[in-house]
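Known limitations

Files may contain more than one protein. Parsers should not assume a single record per file. Below, a two-record file is shown to illustrate correct handling: read the sequence, read the token line, then continue until end of file.
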Amino acid sequence: MIIGKTDLGKFPVILAPLEDITDSAFRNICRKHGADMVYTEFVSSEALVRSAVKSSNKMLFDETERPIGIQIFGNNVEAMKNAAILADELNPDLIDINFGCPVRKVAMKGAGAGLLNDIPLMVAITREVVNSVKLPVTVKTRLGWDENNKIIVNVAEQLQDVGIQAITIHGRTRAQMYSGEADWTLIGDVKNNPRMKIPVIGNGDITNAPKAAEMFNKYGVDGIMIGRAAIGNPWIFKDIKAFLLHGNINPPPGLPERIAVSLAHLKLAIQKKGERKGIIEMRKHYAGYFKGLPRFKKVRMEMLTRQCFIEIEEILLDLSMKEIDG
């Protein structure tokens, strides 16, 4: 799959943009574990044009994270244009427009998935962004606003016609949020629409390698995107690639590897955000890193009270020794 000048190879597996999750530290970890491409957290166009430091910082990335896309959102054409220009100046590999975020504070203000209720504005924003930057522009969206308005086949055509170079589709409506099962049939319809010439990436409920292979084979998508299933589980990218390319089922990581990778992740978070903030923001990942480990709940609660890296490291190394000693 090729987007602009970026060749993502066969069966690309991509890290989805996730608010408060896909920061630079986590993107680095996922790239090291096989993610073919990563995205920033979504960045508010209105905040960017006001020069909000927090939003500007969300766009920063290391060269080791490439290929990477900066994702922006908003509902104002001029603000989105200016935000895209700011993102373009940082020279990521592409700029992505978020037309899929379902959370109330975004969608009910007419941004993210809220634009599925205003397709002319969605198209106008996309056209302006495409015409204002040098980099490839892509879009991430959903099937439609609700069950009675699954309009993605037509919307995808319109967005392609104004110049996007790939589209990612989450197989739910805005009304579903993250409930129920993702419906990939319409994603397949977009991919198999003879008018569509750009790559189509599918997203939703990919939790393991066999499921990823099923989506590629059944719906013919050009790539897949992994979101929540990657939290505390960066191995999912290598696992999927091993199965897709070689038919191999990787064994799950053992406790020493889980500890080593989680500590590497924590070190990166501290390096980039400082010890206090890095430790606090890392807490949401521990349940994933140690999922299924007997008696980990008590250990996790202990970790949540610690305020420095050395103490957390000691807890995890002690956990490893206890596991070895039985």
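...continuing to the second record:
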Amino acid sequence: MLFKKNNSSDINEDQIALVEYAQNRIRSKKRLFFHFSIMIIGFISMLTSNLIFEFKKDSILFEFPWSYWLCSTWFFLFFIHLFNVYVTNKFMGKKWEKNQMKKLVNKQQIKIAEIKTELEKEARIIAESQLFSQNSSRNTVTLIAAASENNIIGKDNKLIWRLSDDLKHFKELTKGHFVIMGRKTFESMPKALPNRTNVIITRKTDYKAENAIVVNSLEKALKVAENDNQPFVIGGGEIYKLSMEIADRIELTRVHTSIEGDTSFPEIDLEKWQEVKNEKRLKNEKNEYDFSFLRYDKIN
């Protein structure tokens, strides 16, 4: 929202600059017209005076009447004025161009900083994942979920909050990996998650799913994902419970509210799990609750 407000402010400033420029152009054209009117009156007056007084000089320099010289000089000055109005100052001017360039540079710097932050965040996540997998003799089975203070994760097979940052966090962590889920979780989504290998666990032997691998047990799902250094279990409640004992890591978004629902995340036993990361976020226009990104690693 702050960014949008800044954009609105920039537009208003640009509009003001254009109005001021238009006003200056009108004033300069009025002055040019006034100059033209005075010049015509002056030409008539001087030529008339010259005819009446018949003033001439014998010098070659003043071979022509004095009024002709004055009229020629005046016309030259008027031509300079005309050129200045319609050519030199036709555009917004150097000051306006400099201000516009400064605004563009500032916007580019902000965009570059945002991209740099995102790249550093992704690099940190990848480095942490690689370090953890190097210290493990097998792949890192990770549970990823968003749960309220009372461990509720859903109701009627639907999301129960709007957390834009959590969705981005989920996408960043799971991108390029196997994501293991129950049938109901898969059916709650509009389609298979892109840029990930979707694995569905179901007891239905004839179940078909587009762009997904279907298996009938957690063991088979992990076997399918054995070449992935960090497969993710993404729900639902029963799949989380089955996975707690064999999981190595939990990526939990703890939503700081208590809410009603019909699906829950298993209680985390702190004698078996160690909190290694806690990053708190405050609610805003894109996130309706305060929440924290928590990471738990299993204690060996």
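Parsers that stop after the first record will miss the second one. For reference, the second record is described as follows. The chain has two domains: 2-92, 136-298.
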